[in-house]
Specification:
By secondary structure, the chain is mainly α. It contains 13 helices and 4 strands. It is globular.
């Protein structure tokens, strides 16, 4: 596989002067663009609002894009890179189900920011802001986004394997992935709540759905839910059909996802296992009974996730086009 990286151009003196570096990592700050692009948040929010108005898919697609970006090489927009040889991050099998509306949201928002503040705001920061905004626009919480990330210089499909949670993984395995990003079990449960507005193609859970239901346990669906899913996803159906992760309130960012798990309505085995796992169940039950508690935990976890693997100095750049290195 080819290693994708930018050419040897240096950052401008002004940009280097604007960078604050602590122990080799960028020091993120909510006011990072206060003097260089003071309207960045309102510009991104307006672009995101227009996209959400076009299609609600924008919400889960953008949020999932942020997760997939941060879990591989850190929050550096490396998942945005398009490769003519199809060997960038977005081309990896675990990323091929990412909806195009998420990418389009970031591209549009970045274009709007570039008109006002050319060469100042990174694609990684635009994605972080857009992820916050889609949650808020679907009745979820709003939080202060820390800014100051640079865009990554490498995007390889081979870097993705083993970095992202899968639909059939057990909580202990997923928790280890979260721990690699300085996230706790409670953070894992809180961030899993993003599935309250997500959707999945049938191929992602068909193996679980059509497994023999004679055995009891958390791997199997409640009978009525299984029948509903089978009607939507016939056996051996291709990836063209998708169903809501939350069958109760699919377009509202709320805590219903956790109540669904208690009722056997977890679409993925990994979702349902959160309710049945000894370490994760207390948080599931707490969030199911208290939406404010969930919102506060989700906000905190999103801020922590946004600090994963941030790039600084010559370790990154500010892309003019989010899909290509400068």
């Amino acid at each position: 596989m080819e290693r994708w990286r930018r050419g040897g151009c240096l950052l401008t003196v002004a940009l280097v002067a604007a960078m604050a570096v602590v122990s080799g990592e960028a020091k993120l700050s909510p006011g990072y663009y206060r003097s260089t692009c003071p309207r960045v948040e309102s510009i991104v929010r307006a672009a995101v609002a227009r996209k959400v108005k076009e299609t609600f898919v924008t919400v889960p697609a953008t949020l999932r894009l942020f997760f997939h970006d941060c879990f591989v090489q850190g929050c550096d927009a490396s998942v945005m890179i398009a490769s003519v040889t199809n060997d960038a991050e977005k081309d990896a099998p675990d990323n091929q189900s990412l909806a195009g509306d998420g990418f389009d949201t970031v591209v549009r928002a970045k274009a709007a920011v570039e008109k006002a503040c050319p060469g100042v705001v990174s694609c990684a920061d635009v994605l972080a802001l857009a992820a916050r905004d889609v949650v808020t626009m679907s009745s979820g919480p709003r939080w202060t986004v820390e800014l100051g990330r640079l865009d990554g210089l490498v995007s390889k499909a081979t870097d993705v394997a083993g970095k992202l949670p899968g639909p059939d993984m057990q909580p202990d395995t997923i928790a280890a992935m979260f721990a690699d990003n300085n996230l706790t079990v409670d953070d894992m449960v809180a961030l899993s709540g993003a599935h309250t507005v997500g959707f999945s193609h049938c191929t992602r859970f068909a193996g679980r759905l059509y497994r023999s239901s004679a055995a009891a346990g958390p791997s199997y669906y409640r009978a009525s839910y299984a029948r509903q899913l089978m009607a939507a996803c016939p056996r051996d159906v291709g990836p063209t059909i998708a169903v809501d992760m939350d069958p109760v309130t699919p377009t509202v960012f709320d805590n219903t996802y956790y109540a669904n798990l208690a009722g056997g309505l977890g679409l993925f085995a990994s979702d349902q296992a959160l309710h049945d796992g000894a370490a994760s169940r207390p948080a599931v039950e707490g969030f199911a009974g208290n939406q404010t508690l969930f919102f506060e935990a989700f906000k905190e976890a999103m801020v922590k996730l946004g600090r994963a693997g941030v790039k600084s100095g010559r370790g990154g750049e500010i892309r003019r086009d989010c899909t290509a290195f400068n």
